[in-house]
Design a protein that fits this description.
The chain is built from 17 helices and twelve strands. The chain has 388 residues and is α/β, with parallel strands linked by helices.
């Protein structure tokens, strides 16, 4: 699989200076953690789940979470487990289909070995599990169960903890909670693919819900948690993990209070005025701004609960030609001694030592999402990525 692999090769060649790389479920963890992109959630109870997975793969989705937790009722958990076993068998029988990276969001640690056993040979389609409401005390049993299931199945399995508990929201307990989470995930570092943020649960601790014309970063009490999570768990010194962006809840806005967040000029230049109007109508201008703020605050990838959000996440994850040029200059071997240089675009200073970590992360993103051609904007990428 590859990002933008669902669009025609000729279109990719026009859009990309450097095309996204191919990868699969057996690729190195560092690559996969960056490649998750828009991780689409789906209730595990959907009767045509295998068909849905195939359909979304054809529309550019490369990672999905099949949820047995908050998206279904307590009374539907057993039926959801049985449905997953059936749907994995259905998928496995389709020899011409390469599914995306598939994860199961469980409720309890005990579900992990049970599901792996029940999946049998079709566990080869599974990339891992998502752990809800992760803390040190609650999380260790999930990680231990994952390690045991991996050993029993002979299949590499990853865990993705969701950070969403009140302890992370409350100032008096936040540092202790983060230190505990850090101890837990560091002990199982090889099995933790990424950390996911549960901003909806953060908001619920205070009876809050952000409006469609506001981002998570406009809700200051939530923004402070994101900052502290990245501060302690997303460092670029080799101790950090990929931290993914929060879910965007909206599909369509019946009425808005504030002006749209999308400037008109990029869409005029790309002759995509109708696309801009469609994005605004479906609350996507707020999503686009939040994705940009995710990147600015050290997050990569995003939890998605609607397929229409996927192209936006992927379009804004592509490395621009200017970013790539700056990163390549900074990482040249002859720059090893440091120093300052003017960017090839002659609009900024590149300071080699302070900007090296940024350049390395940018090159990893370039590998999995590609580098846009010099005259290609996010509007072009977004328009190409939206299924016809």
């Amino acid at each position: 699989m590859r990002h933008f692999g669902h669009i025609a090769p000729g279109v990719r060649q026009r859009l990309f200076h450097r095309e996204p790389c191919a990868f699969d479920a057996d690729s190195p963890a560092r690559l996969l953690s960056a490649a998750l992109g828009a991780t689409l959630y789906s209730p595990a109870t959907r009767s045509r789940l295998a068909d849905d997975i195939v359909k979304q793969t054809g529309r550019g989705v490369v990672s999905m979470v099949l949820c047995l937790e908050d998206s279904i009722g307590d009374e539907d958990v057993a039926a959801g487990e049985e449905n997953l076993v059936r749907q994995f068998a259905d998928l496995a029988a389709r020899e011409d289909v390469e599914p995306p990276l598939l994860f199961i969001r469980v409720r309890t640690p005990e579900q992990i070995p049970d599901l792996v056993q029940r999946l049998g040979g079709t566990v080869r389609l599974l990339s891992g599990f998502v752990f809800p409401k992760f803390t040190e005390e609650r999380g260790i049993p999930f990680l231990e169960a994952l390690a045991a299931a991996e050993h029993a199945s002979g299949r590499r399995l990853f865990g993705m903890p969701v950070l969403e508990t009140p302890e992370l929201m409350y100032r008096e307990s936040r540092v202790d909670a983060l230190e505990g989470i850090a101890r837990a995930v560091d002990k199982y570092r090889d099995r933790v693919l990424a950390l996911r943020l549960g901003v909806t649960d953060f908001c619920s601790s205070y009876g809050l819900r952000r409006a469609p014309d506001m981002t998570a970063y406009d809700v200051q009490i939530v923004a402070s948690v994101i900052a502290d999570v990245v501060n302690m768990l997303g460092r670029a010194d080799g101790t950090g993990f990929t931290v993914t962006g929060p879910v965007w809840e909206y599909f369509r806005v019946p009425e808005r209070m504030f002006k749209p967040l999308l400037r008109t000029s990029p869409f005029l230049e790309g002759q995509a005025v109708e696309l801009r109007e469609k994005l605004i109508e479906h609350a996507m201008d707020g999503l686009l701004r939040e994705i940009s703020l995710d990147h600015a605050n050290g997050l990569l990838g995003k939890t998605c609960i609607h397929p229409s959000h996927v192209p936006a996440v992927h379009a804004l994850s592509v490395v621009s030609h200017e970013e790539y040029s700056d990163a390549a200059d900074i990482l040249r071997p002859e720059r090893g001694g440091g120093g300052v240089l003017r960017s090839q675009y002659t609009n900024k200073m590149n300071e080699v030592k302070p900007h090296r970590a940024w350049a390395e992360r940018t090159m990893l993103r370039a590998e999995v999402f590609g580098v846009a051609n010099e005259d290609v904007s996010f509007v072009d990428l977004l328009a190409a990525g939206i299924p016809g």
